[in-house]
Amino acid sequence: MRDTIVFDLDGTLIDSAPDLTHSINATLNLAGTRAFGIEAIKTMVGDGMIKLFERAVVASSQRFSQTEFDDAYRAFERHYAQNAVVDTTLYPGTQQMLDTLIDHGLTLAVCTNKLEPIARYILEALGVADRFAVILGGRAGRPPKPDPAPLYEILDALASGPERAALIGDSEVDWGTARAAAIPFVLATFGYCQTGTKIDADASFDAMSALPRALASLQ
Fold this sequence. Notes:
By secondary structure, the chain is an alpha/beta fold.
């Protein structure tokens, strides 16, 4: 029985693109027609905050030395940490869906490449952190998804195993993580992935209310 359900965060549980966009534009001093739109930032999300910032720097055509890049990234990290829940929201029906899964005896966790303190802060601010037995994010020394190590770390903490788990996400990064760990992948089709329908998911859902049915199809 799949009783350990692990969620990605950005583009799966939360729509964080507005606040990420604001912090990117503010840090790179972009304004007006030079500023990134939300849809552009969505295409850069998925491999962690430093990769997001790196992609934005490249796309903005700004040239940084390594020292300048490091300083700018730290400024972005600080700005985002202070503004991470201004316009970020849960996707509609998320809280109800989480409660439904818990009522059915499932154990929930979050596995994200977003920095762990920021991920935890966002979930606390949105009122759902207590639904998750483990919230695991990016930190020094922990390989990011699609390396399966973070997912294995969660399963170990929950005394669970791949045969009991499923991963819910919106991207090829999440799909690759699930395949590397040999667990089913359930695709959130409303997320940020640009090639979502092309991902060979084991199940999919287009609204939070449909996730329990998608999970049931895995049993």
